[in-house]
Amino acid sequence: xxxxLANGIYLGAQYAMIALGLTLIFALMNVxxxxxxxxxxxxxxxxYTFYGQLGWPFVLAxxxxxxxxxxxxxxxxRFLFAPVIRRSxxxxxxxxxxxxxxxxxxxxxxxxxxxxxxxxxxxxDGVFNWDxxxxxxxxxxxxxxxxxxxxxxxxxxxQYSKTGRALRALAQDRTAAQLMGVNVDRxxxxxxxxxxxxxxxxxxxxxxxTGVNLGMGGPTSIKAFMMxxxxxxxxxxxxxxxxxxxxxxxxxxxxVLSQYGDITYLLIFIxxxxxxxxxxxxxxxxxxx
Amino acid sequence: MKRRNxxxxxxxxxxxxxxxxxxxxxxxxxxKIGFVGVTSGPAAAWGISNQRSMEARADWINxxxxxxxxxxxxxxxxxxxxxxxxxxxxxxxxxxxxQEGIHYxxxxxxxxxxxxxxxxxxxxxxxxxxxxxxxxLYSAPASNAVLGMVANYQSGPxxxxxxxxxxxxxxxxxxxxxxxxxxxxxxxxxxxxxxLGLEVVSDNVTYQVDTTDFTPVxxxxxxxxxxxxxxxxxxxxxxxxxxxxxxxxxxQGIISTETAQDATxxxxxxxxxxxxxxxxxGASTPEIASDDMKEFVKRYTDMFGEYNDExxxxxxxxxxxxxxxxxxxxxxxxxxxxxATMDTFEAPNPFMKGDAKMRYVGTTxxxxxxxxxxxxVVNVYQDGEFETLFVAEVD
Lengths: 289, 395
What we know:
The complex is a heterodimer of chains A (289) and B (395). Chain A is an all-alpha fold. Chain A has helices spanning 2-29, 36-53, 58-87, 91-113, 138-160, 162-172, 174-179, 184-210, 217-231, 236-256, 264-278; strands at residues 127-130, 134-137. In chain A, strands 1-2 form a two-stranded antiparallel sheet. Chain A starts with a helix and ends in an 11-residue tail after the last helix. Chain B has helices at 2-25, 44-63, 87-99, 111-116, 118-124, 152-167, 180-195, 215-222, 239-248, 263-270, 291-304, 311-314, 316-327, 335-342, 363-366; strands at residues 30-37, 67-69, 72-82, 104-106, 127-129, 171-177, 199-207, 228-232, 254-256, 278-281, 346-348, 357-361, 371-372, 376-382, 385-392. The longest helix of chain B is centred in the N-terminal third of the chain and has 24 residues, at 2-25. The termini of chain B are far apart. Chain A binds chain B through residues 3-4, 7, 10-11, 52, 106, 110, 114-122, 127, 129, 132, 135-137, 140, 206, 209-211, 213-216, 218-220, 250-251, 254-255, 258-262, 265, and chain B through 39-45, 48-49, 178, 204-208, 210, 212-213, 215-217, 219-220, 236-238, 240-241, 248-250, 262, 264-265, 268-271, 304-306, 308.
């Protein structure tokens, strides 16, 4: 039981971080960013390059991931999504753009970083072992703590900073926010950059545990969408709840159902379908409720 | 005026370059060889190492003046198709090859793709070289598929026997991804282990192929305390994480697989925890690599920036196709002539030291010669490099 709880908390924290960026972008711009998983992968590769290849301190490499993805996100919003949203009221236009971006990122990642799985040296050695009832490597514990701290910092930023308040206003009602003097274009760009930065941050954190490879983007996006659907699209607390729920479901399923083969995700998908049929808006309901 | 002159000069230069370029390229007729496999998504490494091996070898041949088959010297062109690990796409890829008049295709990389393309290949007169293990693909009445590597049911028993005899292994646990290839490899491995008298303590734990954290997956397996943990059909992307998780969970036994791996990936992903990991390789370990193999590795590295150890095995398929066509040039247009030649074909193996031969094998496993004789090189990973544990032959 202790192991399941620890695995659930660890998986939940990392999943929640992945979902945060996706739901933020959706809340602000009504964009389903199918390239979110690829942004996560890119963040991992940036940390791999600076920490694993160039020998920078891990914290600086992580910072480089955040900055790279934030700049990339800002550029993508300014030069791709903003013009498309301005010119087309059809939601599928941004969806197609996001899907195209995902393919583009995959191609760029293949060209620049190659097809191989990449990994970096462990940031902390050793394994916590409580009488074989709970085994958890120290680097996982550290990453879990950092992920939880990042989530708390993000919530505080959204709650109390001027930018956070502007972003929340934008998400609640774009027109009203504009009438109240919020520079909609500027904050849309900041919001997208923040969402991309979160993807870069979690990619950089997790590359120390899971490594990174070209093919991780698509599956990561699917999991992120699942978490957002569970919690409620566009709701920050919903994304966190969705991430934690998915993390615990996975940890419990893998521990309890292992003797029946790999049916954990089968059951998760079935449960999700039933849940969405009953509550299609997810747990937390309306955006920013 | 100056701008107009500049434009005219540029156009003239471009035309001249294209004419000269095409003249140089057209010196030899072109022989197209296809590749249909996965070069995107989580398993991209498998197909990309195939494609790049073919491209590196073709480039080397073309640079050396071409490949002589009968009285004609050909330049080799590789035509690639990414099937995205989707059987429907694999069929589309094989149809594309047929439309281009290609009779020899390397791939697909996985079981369902290889099974799906069989009707197209047989109807369109295409010989194909999958990296998939189902025996039905290579046993009569199937005729056009040639296994491009050593199957797990051939390498597994050899590895388990070695570990039983030399390392005192008595119990074994199997872990596999929840996909057709790894699952069938696991089942074959379980059968082989039981036949050798090993106790199989766990064989039902599987994982999603996109799993990134294997600690929860391996926890129940570690409780069974096996002497040997077999990662059935594990992809190079998952191997280091599985090894790392197993070691971090306190596993001190031996870990092995029957798939080819890459030493750099293991070093980066698992570091010293990967020491002692046993896998199946090709012919690039220093003990057996010939000068041609070293040259191939160098050219591959120059072309793509980094070598992939999986290519030690994947360098062979193109070489076999060309050498067999050389033995019987009628095969260029007629695959039945190629098939007839396979029974007696033999040529020096350019990638191994000594007097190793290229020949078709598989009679024991498939009842007909539908497998290329890639050396069964069992490697052990140690401090960033593979060392040869033992070398064996199939058939």
